[in-house]
Amino acid sequence: MAKKMTPVEQTSEKNENEIALRETEGLSQGQIILRRFLRHRAAMISLVALIFIILFAYTASGIHLGTKEDPISIAGWWHFSITDIDPEGAIAATCNGGITGCPTLDIFPAFIDGTGMHIGAHPMGTDVIGTDYFALVVRGAEQSIMVMFIVGILGVALGTIIGAIAGFFGGIVDAILMRLTDVFLVTPTIVIGAVIGFRFGNLGIVPLALMLGFFAWMGLARFVRTEFLTLREREFVDAARIAGASNRRIIFKHILPNAIGVIIVAGTLLMSGAILIETALSYLGFGVQAPDVSLGLLISRYQNSFSTSPWLFWWPGLFIISIALCINFIGDGLRDAFDPRQKRRISLKERLRGTESKARA
Amino acid sequence: MFAYITRRLGMMLLIVFGASFMAYNLEAFSSNPLSIFGESTAKNKHYLMQQMIHRLHLDVPPPIRYFMWLRGVVSGLWGQLNLGMTRDHMPVLDVIGNAIPTTFRLVIASTILAIVLGITIGMITAIRQYSRFDYVMTFISFLLFSLPIFWVAVLLKEYLAIGFNDFLMQPEISLEVTLITAAICGFIMGGITGGSRRRVLSVFGGVTVGVALLLSYLSATHWFVHPGLGIIGVGFLALVSAVIVTQISTGLENRKSLSAAIIAAAIVIVGYYPLQLLMKANASALNVLLVFVITISLAAVAGYFVQNIDRRQNIRTAVLTALLGTLPLILDRYMREFGRYFSSDAVNKRPVPTLGQANDLLNEKQLSNFWITGLDATMHLILPTLALTLISFAGYVRFSRGSLLEVLNMDYIRTARAKGLTERTVIVRHAMRNAMLPLTTILVNDFAGVIGGAIITERVFGWKGMGMLFNQSLTSYDLNLFMGVFMISAVLTVLANLVADLLFGVVDPRIRIRK
Prior knowledge:
The complex is a heterodimer of chains A (361) and B (515).
Chain A: H1 7-24, H2 29-39, H3 41-61, E1 63-66, E2 71-74, H4 87-92, H5 110-113, H6 133-169, H7 171-186, H8 189-200, H9 205-214, H10 218-231, H11 235-242, H12 247-284, H13 295-302, H14 311-338, H15 348-360
Antiparallel strand pairs in A: 1-2
Chain B: H1 2-30, H2 45-56, H3 62-74, H4 92-127, H5 132-145, H6 149-169, H7 175-193, H8 197-220, H9 230-249, H10 255-270, H11 272-276, H12 285-306, H13 311-343, H14 364-368, H15 370-408, H16 411-418, H17 423-448, H18 450-461, H19 466-475, H20 479-507
């Protein structure tokens, strides 16, 4: 019954290990991980796309920080701001149904629809009163990215510190810190977020993001703690302790580098969660407040005009999805890169090459 | 065990206390109930403000006010639970009591659907790792993972509800749509089947042609306006479930099991007309339950007599087949009511609503008809359920895929294969059971996350459940209402954690609960 194995199949497993070994020869752990990550195609595409989106959003709309009364602004290259109103420009672009404010972007070259590629005055159209939608959307994207990074960094920092302390010291410290984590975990994120957003939403995006970050560390703390609990029992920790290393040195120099994979992966998950939470809060009206904009706020504002002006709905959604999708794929690539059991798929060509080289030897 | 549970319950109380204290103060300090008087020009403004301060004890600082509120909660221990009054002078307990069933109706269907679909697809992608199907599903699940639910909801409203309602005006499917749908079905089935290229292609071709023919038939007969499965459809689905159940539980080569399953399917087919007597217009949920009890018990008897060895597995196969086979029977009954529901004045030929939880325009006679009200509730559930399912199912796909892949790398799987067990036994008996273990924790916790998930969905679809109460409590600075919603969700979460831990100890014998 057993089907006849081809020579390639017979030797394949041995060869796979050999090829994998040869590839990692003489490389440090970090280099191996970096190599694996660079080889993850989806993650690399996402990384490039994400960097492009970030640069695009920040350069187009400029940088806006500070409060309403005391703004710090650097203008970007886009010639409209989120408060400029251009009624003529809006009326100038009308589409089939005579609807004003249509997007002027045309990505099809002349031989398809006969009008040629052009960006026009309002590539993403204008909203009902004539505000340039491109300016609004890139501003919203900028806000979302800012929230994502602030929540990510703060959450990772707090989660790592709390998880590390709980896992390393154990005993009563662990018990207290973990019950504290439970207290925070019991509350659904969106509930905490809504209370915070309701109070801090009008202060601008940075305080909102900081507050969200203060309540986003729990999942990560749990992961880090579990990791520390297993790592602190390992021989290299005993060795370090006998050599006279202080607790701080053991935590930062010996255990933390070994737990970095878990932290990075959980961090990316936290970031993609943060962007969705911010949009959800803004959608509910508890997040960013007008006149400032965010992607969630734009969707919530224009969801009812979908049938008449669908672009008001599509563009912000497209940005949310692109950013979150990129982050998720990068996280997936990192997880694969940090997983020691991860075996690369060795293609048939490489296998054959492996057999050949052995035959020659 | 008892000591463990007692200790955990004590800890739970402490956690809920801590969390509620934090939430109470957070909300109390961030809101100002008196702000509604800010622009008021009423002459008795001052008096009204004084009255509200007195009624809500606003002159007491929040940390102390919390304990006044807590007294009402603690009275729950001797049956006098008091969560205070809302701003509109309604007891919070009553308001929440009315909202809970709505929210559960909204969330339970979608959670179950997401779990079943997600785990199935996740396991298939793990078994067919690195196949085209795996890559496509991975991409789709990442995409769904990144979608905001309110965005999906608006799209569903626009294309599914309004689009489908328009389609019903002229229920004919165009050729392109038929072909594309058929090709997608073919791709999915081909991906699930796997194996040699020839096998995949033939499955793809067969399914595509079959679905295309089916869709053309449905389109030509205007089936979508007068749906129904009839005895042929029900029989076909029952037989399909017989084959699937046997394949998964004992393998098709076990002829006795297969015949038990086919007899169970035959029971459903033979019972098609007699059972209609139980499903008249004035039926109730009890009748539906009775239908299930009848088919399942007959199937169990059949499974018992098919063979006198391996009785348990024959009975199990027959019972599962009868359960799955009776579902189309019930579905068919609902479908046959659809034509009347569709053309009634209340519905006015637009059956998929975009808002609300029930049709208020149904008349007395329709409301007394079990099938019509059920159909109405289902129609209102379709969009929110679909939106919630799409969002949450991606997580299950990723998780079950990872879990099964991890198990498939274990040594005991290699041992099982080396023993010469069939691939079905290896996967269903050895791998899948172990892969399901870590899922129990997630499942239980997701049921507890019900309220968090409902907040946005209820807003988008205009349902009046816990999520709406939460939104309302925030915008109207209603502290007692807020705490009521919060307590339900907090208690559910800690209870779910306890249940998950205990369940994990039951299903995984390696876990010993610390004494």
